[in-house]
Design brief:
Blueprint lengths: L2 H4 L5 H25 L3 H9 L4 H7 L1
Length: 60
């Protein structure tokens, strides 16, 4: 290892990146499950009334 590689280990930034990667699944999975429970007819009604995708996501 050279001195540039060793700087990637054992520092606070490496710990934050590792923990974010490790815990991402525990954050993403519940969000995905709750979004899958949204009634599709509400999304279709929102689109029929002229709302764009982003605003549909925010309001429904």
């Amino acid at each position: 290892m050279n001195r540039w590689e060793i700087s990637l280990f054992y520092n606070p930034a490496a710990v934050v990146i590792t923990l974010a990667h490790a815990w991402a699944a525990f954050a993403i999975l519940p969000i995905y499950v709750s979004l899958e429970k949204i009634d599709r007819s509400l999304l279709e009604a929102s689109r029929d009334l002229g709302e764009n995708t982003f605003m549909t996501f925010l309001r429904v």
